[in-house]
Amino acid sequence: MTDLSARSDAALAGTDTLLSVDGLCAGYGASQVLDHVSFSMGVESVCIIGRNGMGKTTLCNALTGLLRPTAGTVTLGDDRLDGATPEKIAKRGMSYVPQGRRLFPSLTVDEHLAMLAKGTRGKRWTPDAVYELFPRLAQRRRNGGAELSGGEQQMLAVGRALLLNGRIVVMDEPSEGLAPTIVDSLIDAVHRLVDEGVAVLVVEQNLRAATEIAERQLVMVSGRLDAETTATELRADPELQRRYLGVDA
Ligand SMILES: Nc1ncnc2c1ncn2[C@@H]1O[C@H](COP(=O)(O)OP(=O)(O)OP(=O)(O)O)[C@@H](O)[C@H]1O
């Protein structure tokens, strides 16, 4: 385990920094939740783990503009994102798959993707490319959001985020409530994205999903990101699992 404050960018040697977060603070009214969160990542998959209520969703919201940071910076490539609206942040290359998927029950899969298809011509991610990544979704293309299983909804939520053709995708607990085989598809999709040059930052509380999605595991405790561990360490250590994920040995 590493103390993040002692960690330098040298730890990312071999990986150029894509996202850099420095001293990020955010909260709700007078209650500060994020307490000077700092980390950086390249084109790789990274997990943010932590027990309930530690501030993981708040971090996702502060990164993607749904919550305005009160201090600190978020830099993607050469662009400063902090303080920008969610629309601007998405346009600059950070897309978000929020917890709960937020789909429209009456729109079909095709219609969800069509809403974002404009502007994807000639780009890597088009509706057809999403159907190729998730063949299950292609079979359900004419079904409405309300008729999809949890796993299909999650695939659609990821597919929608991909159509923004961004540089990084932030996902909040994508494995929540999904059957193990569907979790496998999501894990494969994350690895494929990274292989194709898209960074993926995933909040996870599920031990298997977290450790298979990323080797780097950043630990959030009470709004602070002050430790980093690895999937290898986490798998091997029930005490870490209990402390960081609330998993009972
Ligand atoms: N809209 C809100 N207004 C006020 N407080 C909030 C709001 N959303 C979250 N909080 C508080 O902020 C803290 C962090 O919550 P957050 O949802 O970010 O944690 P989390 O690590 O994502 O947990 P979980 O996995 O349970 O969602 C909690 O104390 C929570 O009660």
What does this structure look like?
This protein has 249 residues and is α/β, with parallel strands linked by helices. The chain has a single domain (2-245), classed as 3-Layer(aba) Sandwich (Rossmann fold). Helices cover 35% and strands 25% of the residues. It is built from ten helices and eleven strands. The strands form two sheets. It has a seven-stranded mixed β-sheet with strand order 1-11-10-4-9-8-7, with helices on both faces. A four-stranded antiparallel β-sheet has the order 3-2-5-6, with helices on one face. A hairpin with a 2-residue loop joins strand 10 and strand 11. The longest helix has 16 residues, at 180-195. Residues 5-14 have low confidence and may be disordered. It binds adenosine-5'-triphosphate. Residues 19-247 form the ABC transporter domain. GO terms for molecular function: ATP binding; ATP hydrolysis activity; branched-chain amino acid transmembrane transporter activity.
